[in-house]
Amino acid sequence: MENISKKTTIYDISKLTGASPSTVSAALSGTWRSRRIKEATALKIQQVARENGYTPNLQARGLRKARSGLVGMIVPAHTNRYFSTLSNAFEAEARARGLCPVIVSTLRDPEEERRTVETLISYAIDSLFVVGATNPDAISDLCASVNIKQVNLDLPGTKAPSVITDDYWGARILTQELLRSVKKHGGGGEDDPVYFIGGFQSDYATDQRIKAFKDVMKEERGGVPDNHIFANSYDPNASTLDAETMCKLEGGLPSGLFVNSTFAFEGVLRYFSKLPREDFSKISVGCYDYDPFASFMHFPVIMVRQNVQEMMKEAFIIMENGALEPKVTEIKPTLIQPRTMPEAR
Amino acid sequence: MENISKKTTIYDISKLTGASPSTVSAALSGTWRSRRIKEATALKIQQVARENGYTPNLQARGLRKARSGLVGMIVPAHTNRYFSTLSNAFEAEARARGLCPVIVSTLRDPEEERRTVETLISYAIDSLFVVGATNPDAISDLCASVNIKQVNLDLPGTKAPSVITDDYWGARILTQELLRSVKKHGGGGEDDPVYFIGGFQSDYATDQRIKAFKDVMKEERGGVPDNHIFANSYDPNASTLDAETMCKLEGGLPSGLFVNSTFAFEGVLRYFSKLPREDFSKISVGCYDYDPFASFMHFPVIMVRQNVQEMMKEAFIIMENGALEPKVTEIKPTLIQPRTMPEAR
DNA sequence: ATGAAAGCGCTAACAA
DNA sequence: TTGTTAGCGCTTTCAT
């Protein structure tokens, strides 16, 4: 306790107890049983260690053992309910395994992703969870060269196992429910316009969702015009512009809007906030993502909540099995009706 | 590049180039100018390093230099807009300084806070940012014993400098604005009931906010009954119950509600979601925290957005100045009117 | 302008 | 049952 300026090491404890450094090491790292250290010795060492505020230097241990006990995760952003829920689940799983979780956001920037992963590798993370990366395969190359196991989440890669949401299925039920809502609250016509805003056309998830959207629209409406679909970016600002374009095109708000992610929704709302409240009497929104507050707006918002716990649990299982083949596991999401607030997670 | 199973080290590069390990180290760590390494030598070494996919082992470096380049931050939770925005700002500041940010959530659990901080210390973090801790001073004791600089955010401590929001001021203007809204949308009477829900009575921020709430209520209404104030927990579930109690007591929804944080708001909404929509025609809500979606509900929600960037910037400045005296810096928050969506951060 | 060598704190053979 | 020693990969005197 009196040690103010330098950390206590096993050598300090060694001197204090008269035991050798290796005995101290064993006593303090939990391996003493298998090293047949006398229980009394071990207990005494632990006692002294406690009295002196000893904590192991995990850098030294990591250097020696060539593994750090750190598990890394990269996410596109923190300020998003979906990703932060993943962070939460990730920490829980890591903690349950006695590992130290390190989460870094990479802002959907491939260069930042690369830099961050290199940094994490330099800190000798034992494994890496890659969430929604723009280029998971590039990361796989980095990881492969240093034998770090990797699992992708949210967006799949071809060089590492992936756990993703069954986006086609989710977008289908969301679109169907949205159309039902449009029928109920909308203008009433079979030709009430329905739009799609948000996401990258080229990313897998968006692609699946658009496919499902189009398919359902085809089945129930005979189709949807291409210019009713905006998928240029995950940047909220882009969606603000898209919403404006949509309203110009439509001469007002449409009866139905499929919003691809809460990112896009934020952008759309930024535009909506300028419109008079009466304009919203007929619109229904389907949002592919869940946010508790969004379910409680002044027009119906149907949401899809991805099953984050299960995704993360699955990811850890795959990791523990060696993360070998790059196979894709799909998890089904849940539909959340407007003004419904499921238990927090 | 061909190195599959083991990481390239400076010794590999040393052999490959014929230079000594120390020269390689200097060339690769950027200290070569001051060591008067010939530029040609340095460049060649860097070239070879690049070709072989060399990345430094930061654990080894950290062990040797006794500082890791890691900066730690603990937050109560990830799944909250305010905290995740802080995470975002923290990462930005850390990155700008070439440091690696490590953010861990501690779930408002003092024991978890202690364990996590100990772990971070074991990884030799260079400094620690403590957000909304239940017991910042206990953490200060841990940090002091190993000479780690600490700054508290959101909730102040007495043993390390703190950067917090000017909660009294923020809660005053929020209450005033809420009363204005109640006057406009409420039943019309001077005696429209106004309630307060959320937070811990004993924590500094809640205390300040309740004080401000009471003061304004006194000034404008002559006071507020004690049983109109619920401050038992940050757990959304507690707020669900509080909302129910409130409505029982009131025989319906009150005209005004001061909600202390989005955590509480989530809980309140969970109860609200069971009520018929018409019931909400007269209620106004003031929420001490900002969430983009919450500003867009079917009744007016006035919010306070804490100035996260400035708080974090200030925290880093204090850290860089040595984080000496435990003085408290207060930052003023911003009022956000209903249906207003400021730029994302 | 560069090399040799020590050592950061720990663990794991190998001895005893 | 315990001690001795080497070495993880790096930086940093001190030599040269």
Structure write-up:
Two copies of one chain form a homodimer. By secondary structure, chain A is an alpha/beta fold. Chain A has three domains: 10-56, Orthogonal Bundle (434 Repressor (Amino-terminal Domain)); 64-160, 3-Layer(aba) Sandwich (Rossmann fold), CATH 3.40.50.2300; 167-305, Response regulator (Rossmann fold), CATH 3.40.50. The first copy, chain A, is 44% helix and 16% strand. Chain A has helices spanning 10-17, 21-29, 39-51, 58-65, 81-96, 110-122, 136-144, 167-185, 204-221, 236-250, 262-272, 308-320, and strands spanning 70-75, 100-105, 127-131, 149-153, 162-165, 194-197, 199-200, 229-230, 232-233, 256-259, 284-287, 301-305, 328-331, 334-336. In chain A, the strands form three sheets. In chain A, strands 2-1-3-4-5-13 form a six-stranded parallel sheet, with helices on both faces. In chain A, helix 2 packs across helix 3 (39-51) and helix 8 (167-185) crosses helix 9. The longest helix of chain A is centred in the middle third of the chain and has 19 residues, at 167-185. The mean pLDDT of chain A is 94. The first copy, chain A, binds a DNA duplex (16 and 16 nucleotides) through helix 2 and helix 4.
Key structural traits:
3 domains, 12 helices, 434 Repressor (Amino-terminal Domain), 44% helix, six-stranded parallel β-sheet, homodimer, 345 residues, Rossmann fold
